[in-house]
Amino acid sequence: xxxxxxxxxxxxxxxxxxxxxxxxxxxxxxxxxxxxxxxxxxxxxxxxxxxxxxxxxxxxxxxxxxxxxxxxxxxxxxxxxxxxxxxxxxxxxxxxxxxxxxxxxxxxxxxxxxxxxxxxxxxxxxxxxxxxxxxxxxxxxxxxxxxxxxxxxxxxxxxxxxxxxxxxxxxxxxxxxxxxxxxxxxxxx
Length: 189
Description:
Layout: H1 3-24, E1 39-51, E2 58-70, E3 76-79, E4 82-86, E5 92-96, E6 99-102, E7 109-118, E8 129-138, E9 143-154, E10 157-167, E11 172-183
Antiparallel strand pairs: 1-2, 2-3, 2-4, 3-6, 4-5, 5-7, 6-7, 7-8, 8-9, 9-10, 10-11
């Protein structure tokens, strides 16, 4: 036997083994796993009313053009929400924002972007408004708060500050720091 034939045979066997190995270890197309949709459901142009678990009275009303309930954590993302939260007399505060978020149990609401809060408009109620960029609301505690700058207005009075807490049921408010007040009395008639 010639050494060339032995070397050629060895190279042929090596080529066959490496070809077989490459064929066997080739990447197989991965079966695409159907991803679960990120939303359980989507609501369009809706009104949702939540009742208090103890009294059965209206606790929160939500109106919005669109909401997505997240499958993974059961939270809800909302586009331009309008929340109505009743005070002690059952008159609703109106809270608006660019976006909203609701916790799985509905015990926390987060409003983000151009947040506007307006007190009920009824005889005997001093009209009050506040404006801020973020607001966290805890409906069961009737509490709304933010750490951001807030402008609050009432007839003849404008207050600004950083940090804000409000009991929406009793209409008690606190500006927490850097408070500035501007009093504008109405002209005597």
